[in-house]
What does this fold into?
Amino acid sequence: MKMDAGMDTGDMIDKLGFKIGFDWTSKNIIERMQQYGPKFLNDTLRKFGKKMLGAVPQNENKATYCSKIEKES
It folds into this structure.
């Protein structure tokens, strides 16, 4: 993602998606990212370096927002 003035609002350079099972835990998601993430990042960096990828604006109509998370006492 490219940087811009907003938080997580810059143009996307590449993305990796996968389905998350209903019963998955954060451990399952981390394991999946460990499995696919390094190759994806390497491929993306190579393509970006060769100017094979272009930036694509994010669709603000599909954005979701989270309010500030406060520590509970």
